[in-house]
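Quarterly update from the structural biology core.
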Amino acid sequence: MNKFGGDWTENKIEILVEYAKAYLTIMNGFAKKYDWKLLYFDGFAGSGFITKGNAENQKIIIGAAYRILEIINPREFDLYYFVEKDSDNINLLKKNTIDVFPNKIIHVVETDCNEKIESMSKFLASIKGKRYKTLAYIDPCGMQLNWSSLQTLEKLSVDAWILIPTGMGVNRLLKKDGKISDAWLNKLEVFLGMEQKDILSYFYKEKVTPTLFGDEIKVQKEEAIERSAELYQERLKKLFKFVSKPYILKNSSNSVMFHFLMVSNNPSAVKVANEIVSKYNKAS
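Predicted structure, tokenized:
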């Protein structure tokens, strides 16, 4: 089983499921009218279940893959595609999806999410793929999602919920003094799809302090979590027409860990997403 924690683990799944039900309700009539097929894609599907807490106080959470497969009203998805890179999780995932729901068309693939996002994009852009409308759930635990992969989804009929590791990822790599290793800068470059010089100029500013021996120049990191969330949203708006407000995921110490949002080229889709996100943000 996957191990994770916090009420936000359950909340983001509830947000996704609530949106999926609304999505299927809205798309049901269109699918019948235009002979569309509805595809669900999960890029980091895990094992199907998540354990939370320590051994003495452990809770098992039903994962997103299982919850989505449970939906039958107003309709089901026509095709389910689950991607998981961890070999230990993949066998459990098959047992918790294919074995439990034998009458559904389910693909479970052991590979890297970026690879499958790109191949899915090529399919959706093809003549046959244009019949498919997709709801995607891209839920990495860190910075595994490459910006170049998201770029391939541009202009396609995809509503995608994306978990952004603003506190758990970007903030941890941005050292206070600006002295970041080449490996970490490369990681930020791939994740944000930006050149290193632009990343540094966005997150850092120089502070000049006069001293007896001349001006002392220090590099200071600005509010990295908030700025990384704003930056990622602004960059998403260059790929998709609409970006929802984020659900902000915090730990027990009230520190921001992730931002969870949806992108789409459909204004109605983001309106629904914003209504759901607003409800969960108020409850947090």
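DSSP finds ten helices and 13 strands in the chain.
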